[in-house]
Amino acid sequence: MDLTGINKIFEGSSKPAKIVCCITTVLLIFFYMFHKNVFVIDDRQHQKGQYMPSPKQYGGALGLQLRGRLGNQMFQYASILGLASMMKFERVIIEGGHELRDTFKFENDRVEFGKVPAYWKVVKSTQSGMFDETLTQLNNNSELQIEAFLESWKYFQMIESTVKKDFTFKSTVMSNAQKLLNATIVKQAINISFTNVTYVGVHVRRGDFLNVAAVQKGLMVAPMEYILKAMRIMHILYGPDIIFIICSDDIPWVKKAISDQGHISDYTYVFMENNPPNVDLAVLSLCNQTIATTGTFSWWAAWLAGGTTIFYKHQARQGSEYRQKFNYDDFFYPHWILLE
Q: Which domains does the chain have, with CATH numbers?
């Protein structure tokens, strides 16, 4: 913008004329910058206590209010991040999830933990354990709150390295887990002479899955027969030098069930007791292989550990309300071993 002509007007002008020229100059500069889109004016109404940013400022955002416990929250976090990456949303706002934030470091600049604005449009999906393709077709020039459990690896398969980094355990959690595992090594060294130990994490989910309401919906727990079969397969695959690291929300049941099986007395196993869930998860992540039963906690224990995973095939009772929300191809990785 050339202001040479305006400068000439100032020369030799009276004081009132100079004031008028100053005001005119400011207005000209403002309209020039507005015309060039230097300013973005958002004509939407501001809600009380909230600022409503224009999509032009960041190209859209996704929000999510975390629900459920640690395993559920991990799926929701990973999947909303995957959807944002897939559709090129620039920002992700995560509301809630204290258990999640108490467990992992989270150093992702794209993610903000805070309250999802109430005026954002809500997009719902009732398909819990399956990939909902409609969620991949959203307008990335908008602000949307996703309301879904998002329990499928297909949502974040393209950003697994990012998810792995975000799910780095806090140092206090991992330190406690390593101490527990090291203590196990020292304790078992008294009784065994393994030269190449393989640690197999075993997670047995029971607890609230046995509540009347959960059973009616179709949630299931794995029987002891499945766990024993999986342990035998691990011995076939990796030889006798195995220590089974057993975590559960019902350790007394597991102890009794194992003690009733006299023929597995040759197996070496250790129970992890009285630890918070995030420490149990960190312990399981340090294992070489995994035997998983039901639920999302088992799923993430297997995912974090890597290695060979054996999973109980029946996550929901056939014909139940819960089973209708599951597509096992979307929930289980193709390379995982599924057993009855």
A: 4-35 (no CATH), 55-166 (no CATH), 171-339 (3.40.50)
